[in-house]
Specification:
The structure is a homotrimer of 262-residue chains. Chain A is globular and about 40 Å long. In chain A, 63% of the residues are buried. Chain A has 12 helices and 8 strands. The first copy, chain A, has a single domain, classed as Ribokinase (UDP-N-acetylmuramoyl-L-alanine:D-glutamate ligase, 3-Layer(aba) Sandwich). Chain A has an 8-stranded mixed beta sheet, sandwiched between helices. In chain A, α3 links the parallel β1 and β2. Chain A is α/β, with parallel strands linked by helices and 262 residues long. The longest helix of chain A has 21 residues. Chains in contact: A-B, A-C, B-C. At the A-B interface, α3 and α11 of A face α6 and α11 of B. Chains A, B, C: InterPro entries: Hyethyz_kinase, Ribokinase-like. Chains A, B, C: Its cofactor is Mg(2+). Chains A, B, C: Keywords: ATP-binding, Kinase, Magnesium, Metal-binding, Nucleotide-binding, Thiamine biosynthesis, Transferase. Chains A, B, C: Belongs to the Thz kinase family.
Chain lengths: 262, 262, 262
C-alpha cells in the first residue's frame, strides 16, 4: 500500500476538484496580478471577475512589486512586450519568488519574434509553476515538435507543469499526464480567450498546491464554460458575452456532467 | 427669505437635473479626454459614446495638452500608472487649469501601491472638481476610514467634491451630502464599470457648474442604467451589453421613476 | 476595344469581389499586424478573427519588424501615439516596404494634435496603399475641405487610395471613384468601429492587388454587417456583439443583395 498516495493522485476526481476550486474562488475572492498583453487586459479582468477573482493589471515597473506581493498568484503573458512590460516582468517574477507566490507563464506568439523567444527563456529560468502554450509556442521554446513525450520531457527538465492547449489540452508535470477534450471552436474566434483562461490557471494555483491539478481544473472550467456558452451564441460576438455568463453561473454539478478527461 | 437659494439648492430635483444633463450631452456631444487605465479605455469610450459624449484617450505626453484644451472635461484615472501616463497626467492637469476645464480624479487601487499614493496626492493638490473613490481608496488618501463625517471633512479641507461609491454612493462638497442607493451587484463584476462611470461624472461637470450636483446626477444615471440592464442580463457578460443599451436608451422619465436619493 | 480593360474595371462587380475576398480570408487566414490605438486593439483583433484573419498587435519597436515581415498586411493607426508606437511605426513601415507588404494608414483625430499631424505626414510619405480617414482628418491632412474633387486630387498627388468614410463612403485612387452607402448609425456609437474596419481593408489588400477595389470591398462588408447587426440590437452594447456575429456569418449572397454602390 506504499504506492496508494501516488495512485490516488493519479485518479483524482478532476471535475470535483474544479468545482471546489471555483466555489472557493467565489468566496475567497483571490487576487491575481496579471501582466498581460494590451488586447487581453480587459477580457482577462472580466474573466477573473466572472469566475470570482479580483484582477489587477498595472504594468508600471514601480508598482508591480507592491501589486504582486498582495496577490495570491501572478500571470505573466508576453503578448505585447513593450518597454514597461520588459522591465516590469522580471521584477514581478522576483517578487513572486520572494513571497513564494505561484506564477504562470504564457509565451504568446513566441515563435514569431526572436527577442520575445529570448525573453521567454529568461522567464522560464525564473521557475513558473505552470507554462501554458500552444503547439507552435512549445516548438519554438523546446526546439522540437510537441508530442506527449517531448512535452513530458520538457516539463521534467524545466521542473514545471506544461499545459499545452489545443483541440485536446494536454497537461503534464513530467510524470502524470492529463488530457481534456472540452471546449468549442468559437473559443478560437475571440481574442485573448486563451490568455484570459491562463489567468484562471493562475487563480487556481493560489488555491491548490498541486499545479498540475490546478491547471487541469482551470482548463476544464474554461472548456466547459465554452461549450455551454456556444449553445446560446450566434457567433463570436455573442459568444464573448455568453461565455462570461456561463462561467459566472457554472455549478460544480455541471462540471461533473460535462468533463471529458482522460 | 435670504436663505431661499441655499434651501432650494438643498432640495434640488436630482432626477430632473440628471435627465436634462443626459439630453444635453446627447445633443451637445461634449468631448471628454480620458487618461485612464489600459483595461478601462475601451469600456470608458463606449460608455461615453452610449451616453452621447465624444471620447478621446491618448496618453502620449506630447499630445495631451492639445486634446485636453479642446475637451469640455478631463478624466484622470490612475489604474495603470506607466511611464507615459505619469508624464502625461501633470501636463493634462496643468492644461485643464489653464483653460478652467473641469477635471475629475479617480485614484484606482491607490491603497495598493505606495508610489501611486504619492502620485495621487500630487494630483489632488492640482485641484480636481470631483474625487471619485471607494472606501479603501479613500482610507489610503485620507489616513482614516470613510464615514460621512470624515468624507465631508476631507472634501472641505481639499476644496473638492468627494464621490464615495459603494452599495450606497455618498457625494459631498463638505457642506451638502447626497446619498444614492441605485445600482446593481452585477456592476461589480464588470471591469472598469466604476472607472467608466467616472467619465460620465466628468462629462456632466462640463455641462453643469455645480460639481456636487453634476457628480450625483452622473452616478444616478449609471446606477439606474445598471438596474435596468440587470433585468435583461444572464450574467456579467450580457450585462456589459445591456448596460450600454440601457444608457443609450435611458429617458428622463425613467430617471424620475427609479431614483433612490436621500 | 483597347479601352475594354479600363471599362471592365470601372464596372467591377464589387459585391462579388467582396464575397470572394471574404471567403478567401476565411480559408487562407491572412495575418494582419495592427499597430493601433489602445482603445481599438481588442475590437480590431475580434473583428479580424470574426472575418477570418489572424491578428497580431504588439507595438514593441524590437518586435515589430518580425511581426510585420510574417504578415500579409500592416495597419498603422495613430489613435494613441505614445512613445513605443512613435518608435515602432517607422520600423513597421520600413519593413512593409522592404517586403512589398501592403499597408494602410488611419490617421485618427489628426486634426486634434499638431505633433500627430506632423507624424501622419511622415507616414504618408512612406507610401501607404490606402489612407482611410473621415472628413475632419482629411481636411487637416490636405489643408482643404473634403470634396470629391479634392479627395481625388489628394489621392493623385500622393499616389495612394483615399477611403473617405462617412454617411457615404467615398473611395478613390485619383481616377476611379466608388461610393458606398451601406452602414448604420449605431456604428458611430461603438468605439474603434472605424479603426477595426480599416484592419479589414488591410486584410483585403493582402488578397487583391488593386487597393481601390480591396478597400471598397472591405468597407462594403463592414457596412452591410452593420446593417444586419442593427436589426438584432437594442443599442450600442448588443450591437457590438451582433456586428461580430453578422460578420462571422456573412455570405456572398447577402453582400450581393444589400450592396448600395455607385
Amino acid at each position: 500500500m506504499t504506492s496508494a498516495p501516488a495512485s490516488s493522485r493519479d485518479t483524482i476526481d478532476l471535475p470535483g476538484l474544479a468545482g471546489s476550486l471555483l466555489e472557493r474562488l467565489r468566496t475567497e475572492r483571490i487576487r491575481v496580478h496579471a501582466i498581460t498583453n494590451a488586447a487581453a487586459q480587459t477580457f482577462t479582468a472580466n474573466l477573473l471577475l466572472a469566475a470570482g477573482g479580483i484582477p489587477s493589471l498595472t504594468v508600471a515597473p514601480e508598482e508591480v512589486p507592491a501589486f504582486t506581493s498582495r496577490s495570491g498568484a501572478l500571470l505573466v503573458n508576453l503578448g505585447t512586450l513593450d518597454r514597461d512590460r520588459r522591465e516590469a516582468i522580471p521584477q514581478a517574477i522576483a517578487t513572486a519568488r520572494d513571497h513564494a507566490t505561484p506564477w504562470v507563464l504564457d509565451p504568446v506568439f513566441v515563435e514569431a519574434s526572436p527577442p520575445r523567444l529570448e525573453f521567454a527563456r529568461s522567464c522560464l529560468a525564473g521557475g513558473p509553476c505552470v507554462l501554458r502554450c500552444n503547439a507552435g509556442e512549445f516548438a519554438a521554446l523546446a526546439g522540437e515538435d510537441a508530442t506527449p513525450g517531448s512535452v513530458q520531457a520538457f516539463a521534467n527538465s524545466h521542473a514545471t507543469v506544461v499545459a499545452l492547449t489545443g483541440a485536446v489540452d494536454l497537461i503534464t508535470d513530467g510524470t502524470r499526464l492529463i488530457r481534456i477534450e472540452n471546449g468549442h471552436p468559437l473559443m478560437g474566434y475571440v481574442t485573448a480567450m486563451g490568455c484570459a483562461g491562463t489567468a484562471l490557471v493562475a487563480a487556481f494555483t493560489a488555491l491548490h498546491d498541486n499545479p498540475l491539478e490546478a491547471a487541469a481544473a482551470a482548463l476544464l472550467v474554461t472548456g466547459i464554460a465554452g461549450e455551454i456558452a456556444a449553445r446560446g451564441a450566434n457567433g463570436p460576438g455573442t459568444f464573448q458575452t455568453t461565455f462570461l455568463d456561463a462561467l459566472f453561473n457554472l455549478s460544480p454539478a455541471t462540471l461533473v456532467a460535462h468533463g471529458k478527461i482522460s
